[in-house]
Design a protein that fits this description.
The chain has 101 residues and is an all-alpha fold. The protein is built from three helices and no strands. Helix content is 50%, strand content 0%.
């Protein structure tokens, strides 16, 4: 299996540069990503400290019971997989090496 370890860069936009958000969009986002969820795993994933701080600030600010950084990140990743499953499978399949040959 190939593993090229690409570098991923995420730019966090500082306040004041985004247009205002409609109330319905905020409500939909909250329902989709900021719902309480019990995480029953002790697996660890490492993310850049700046990104961690940004996400943690949002979680602390909304203060929804049962919503943690882990539940928020799990919701984001689950949505990403739902939206990109076909492409992810294609990338996975393209990177498999033949066992014999």
């Amino acid at each position: 299996m190939k593993n090229n370890n690409p570098t991923v860069t995420i730019q966090v936009i500082s306040g004041g540069t985004l247009p205002p958000c409609e109330k319905s969009e905020k409500e939909e986002y909250t329902k989709k990503f900021l719902s309480p969820m019990e995480i029953c795993s002790n697996s660890k994933v490492y993310i850049p400290s700046g990104l961690h701080a940004t996400l943690q600030r949002l979680i602390k600010t909304v203060d929804i019971p049962g919503v943690s950084l882990s539940s928020y990140v799990t919701s984001i990743i689950s949505e990403h997989i739902r939206e990109n499953a076909i492409a992810m499978k294609g990338v996975y399949d393209d990177n498999l090496q033949e066992l014999f040959g």
